[in-house]
User: Fold this.
Amino acid sequence: MFDYLIVGAGFAGSVVAERMASVCGKKVLLIDRRKHVAGNAYDCLNADGLLVHQYGPHIFHTNSEQVFQYLSRFTSWRPYEHRVLASVDGKLVPIPINLDTVNALYGKQLNSLQLEAFLASVAEPKEAVRSSEDVVVSKVGRYLYSKLFQGYTRKQWGIDASQLDAQVTARIPVRTDRDDRYFSDTFQAMPKLGYTHLFENMLDHPNIKVELGVDYREIVRGVSFRELVFTGPIDEYFGYRFGKLPYRSLRFAHKTICKERFQPVAVVNYPNDHRYTRITEFKHLTGQIHARTSIVYEYPCDHGDPYYPVPRAENAAIYAKYAELARSSPDVHFVGRLATYRYYNMDQVVAQALTLCANLAGVSRAELCESETRAAAASAA
Ligand code: FAD
Ligand code: UDP
Assistant:
């Protein structure tokens, strides 16, 4: 008899498995229908020996010291600050928009102070910032919106930015200095030996049994367990009874290039040209030294694995019905990006999973994160 059956070995499921096994001594069966752990963060060596992220570039960043310290139990880190360029009218310009982006696209030589005044003169202030279009246009105006956001967003989501919640483009700041980092978080780093290695360390515990290539529906009747933790799509769990929740998918085209470097930074975005949104060159992320290099093109599509919940009011309304149903199933816990239909980054999923464990264990999140350290310190003393 298992205390927990956990469906999905991504960050959500693996964190719950690790904490419930290590801190609470629970017996856990962790399954995934994929043939590997790590969910969408999975990385592996390709046929040419290059470390690639199978499901697109995953860059770790967080402002939560607790999340960073927790994950540091399972990996050491490679310092890395992410930089992205956008290809616009034959130029490569920094994204998020900064001083250099504006000077390059307007052919100006403004300084930071002048830029603030300039952006104020081109911005279209809105009384209420509701959509992803409003977010950008109200800060930088329509010209920069059309060059950097309009086409990319349409490709990525299959709908216009005016139809998407503000939170989507609000992920991208606007800067008036020359800071060209994609993220501003306190902690930015890559797991030194990769994400899969981090997960293998996390799940290496005698109370955790991992079964891969197994779908929940196929095994649920044959396993005895007390409680279920579900990290797959919540609409699928409930048999789509309130309709399908839309998820945006991606097709990844991986390629090895027979030269050492392909592009100047890890990611180049193509807002206006091509059917793909961006090209990633992994060696920038991994620091691997190799005579060849590996890249991936991302082609957004409607069908395929569910990668992105689509933040729109009408989808939030469908999700609310599933969430209500979830609340009336006290022995089933829903956690993670697909099960709570939230456009969450890895660190937010880890934090959400730690909160669930703290609630299940009846302790604070700080206690939950420290408890093993305390137990280890007590036994060492
Ligand atoms: P997942 O990783 O999706 O794991 C859920 C698992 O459940 C899957 O492995 C699935 O196979 C399994 N599953 C589902 N249903 C069943 C079932 N019925 N039976 C068995 N198994 C099942 N975040 C960042 O912080 N930084 C980034 O740079 C970043 N880049 C991203 C790039 C892309 C292209 C994508 C798609 C996401 C990116 N993310 C990034 C987000 C990150 O991938 C997620 O926050 C994180 O992986 C979510 O973890 P999860 O455990 O909730 O879900
Ligand atoms: N975005 C854009 N142009 C860019 C970068 C981002 O229009 O050059 C918009 C787009 O709608 C995208 C969203 O901002 O989906 C969030 O970007 P992010 O890089 O955070 O997306 P993710 O890495 O999650 O795919």
